């Protein structure tokens, strides 16, 4: 078993060590394994590490807990991703409070070029369900990853419609991977694993306690390009997720509803106070997100555009198109050998030419 990965996991079992301190410890010590080789005195010099935490790390008991967790993961057919892994969602890496470990189950690419989160009330009406059905059907040409929380109502309906239309879908849990909540959705969860899967930041055995769900919502918001609220009351989890998505500079959309209807209040308010774009059809999403459906015409146009570019512009675009996933400006600088000042100018020019998309966290991707 890889000692570095065991050490990474062991840090998560140290009392009082959260995602930020895990990253801080690894950054200061050079690796997770090196953290456990530090003297107590050196650990105490790391910002945020007090005597109790230093003692817990120095004792090393959590290394045994980590080994047990990996064995459970193997039995549960679950992959464990750390924030340093290539398969870790790149969109999450752009947010400050991203989880430093994820448990993933299923056949799933968390870094597809388009991701859409759909959330809403647990008391979905026939109107809300109809809107979800139409949205998923019309999203098929884009083949996005559909993200939701496996909850009653809008969430589970989004997952079911994604399965129906052959779209990959992932359910983000507020519990451990071995505890599907609500239990009524176990059959749907099993079907999702064939073309998508389940994801959580929680250790095995974690119960679906109330405080886990706001944390779960930040993952949903952080993983998406666009968040769609279909139905929501004046208060609730869907509005919390929309608020988080706005703080992450994600594009938020809301389906309008009838005035006076309880589960339209949240969506109508988001639109009213300019915290969500009005969504009447997928065409609104395509317009705001500047999403085009691929095809021969699009490829021909791209070849034409490339031939008219300056050599430096072509070099930058070739890196973005080769990667197929968002690239940070630091990586672009390394790959192209260009300074960040020049890159910023070239990227802006390529944006104006509709060849590059700028994403939060100084990340870019080619169209």
Give structural notes.
The protein has 367 residues and is α/β, with parallel strands linked by helices. It has three domains: 3-75, DNA polymerase, domain 1 (Orthogonal Bundle), CATH 1.10.150.20; 105-289, Rossmann fold, CATH 3.40.50; 296-366, Winged helix-like DNA-binding domain superfamily/Winged helix DNA-binding domain (Arc Repressor Mutant, subunit A), CATH 1.10.10.10. Helices cover 47% and strands 13% of the residues. The protein has 17 helices and twelve strands. It has helices at residues 3-12, 19-29, 32-35, 40-44, 51-59, 61-75, 126-139, 154-164, 186-192, 212-223, 237-247, 265-272, 282-289, 296-307, 311-323, 329-336, 340-352, and strands at residues 79-82, 101-107, 115-119, 145-148, 169-172, 196-200, 226-229, 251-254, 277-278, 327-328, 356-359, 363-366. The strands form two sheets. It has a nine-stranded mixed β-sheet, with helices on both faces. Strand 5 (169-172), helix 9 and strand 6 form a beta-alpha-beta unit. Helix 15 packs across helix 17. Residues 295-305 have low confidence and may be disordered.
Q: Any descriptors?
A:
alpha/beta, DNA polymerase, domain 1, Arc Repressor Mutant, subunit A, nine-stranded mixed sheet, three-stranded antiparallel sheet, 17 helices, 12 strands, 47% helix
Largest beta sheet: what is the strand line-up? 1-2-6-5-4-3-7-8-9
* Global mean pLDDT: 89
**Quantity of strands, as a count:** 12
Indicate the percent of residues in helices. 40-55%
How many domains make up the 3D coordinates? 3
CATH class of the largest domain: Alpha Beta
Strand content range: 5-15%
Instruction: Tell me the major beta sheet.
Output: 9 strands, mixed
Which fold name corresponds to the CATH topology of the largest domain? Rossmann fold
């Amino acid at each position: 078993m890889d000692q570095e990965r065991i050490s990474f996991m062991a840090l998560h079992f140290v009392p009082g060590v959260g995602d930020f301190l895990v990253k801080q410890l690894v950054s200061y010590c050079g690796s997770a394994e090196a953290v456990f080789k530090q003297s107590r005195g050196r650990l105490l010099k790391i910002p945020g590490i007090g005597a109790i935490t230093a003692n817990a790390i120095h004792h090393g008991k959590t290394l045994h807990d980590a080994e047990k967790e990996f064995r459970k993961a193997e039995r549960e057919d679950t992959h464990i991703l750390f924030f340093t892994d290539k398969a870790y969602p790149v969109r999450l890496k752009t947010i400050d409070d991203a989880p430093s470990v994820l448990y993933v189950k299923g056949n799933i690419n968390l870094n597809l070029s388009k991701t859409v989160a759909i959330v809403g009330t647990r008391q979905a009406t026939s109107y809300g369900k109809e809107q979800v059905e139409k949205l998923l059907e019309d999203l098929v040409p884009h083949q996005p990853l559909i993200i939701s929380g496996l909850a009653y109502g809008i969430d589970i309906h989004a997952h079911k419609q994604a399965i129906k239309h052959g779209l990959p879908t992932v359910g983000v849990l507020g519990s451990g991977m071995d505890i599907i909540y609500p239990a009524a959705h176990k059959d749907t969860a099993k079907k999702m694993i064939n073309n998508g899967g389940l994801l959580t930041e929680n250790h095995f055995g974690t119960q679906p306690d109330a405080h886990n769900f706001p944390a779960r919502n930040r993952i949903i918001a952080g993983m998406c390009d666009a968040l769609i609220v279909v139905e929501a009351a004046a208060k609730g989890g869907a509005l919390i997720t929309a608020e988080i998505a706005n703080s992450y500079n994600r594009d938020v959309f809301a389906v309008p509803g009838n005035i006076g209807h309880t589960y339209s209040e949240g969506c109508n308010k988001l639109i009213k106070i300019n915290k969500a774009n009005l969504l009447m059809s997928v065409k609104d999403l395509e317009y705001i997100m500047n999403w085009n459906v691929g095809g021969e015409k699009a490829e021909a146009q791209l070849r034409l555009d490339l031939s008219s570019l300056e050599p430096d512009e072509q070099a930058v675009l070739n890196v973005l198109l080769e990667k197929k996933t968002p690239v940070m400006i630091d990586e672009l600088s390394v790959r192209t050998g260009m300074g960040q000042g020049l890159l910023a100018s070239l990227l802006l020019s390529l944006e104006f030419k509709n060849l590059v998309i700028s994403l939060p966290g100084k990340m870019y991707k080619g169209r």
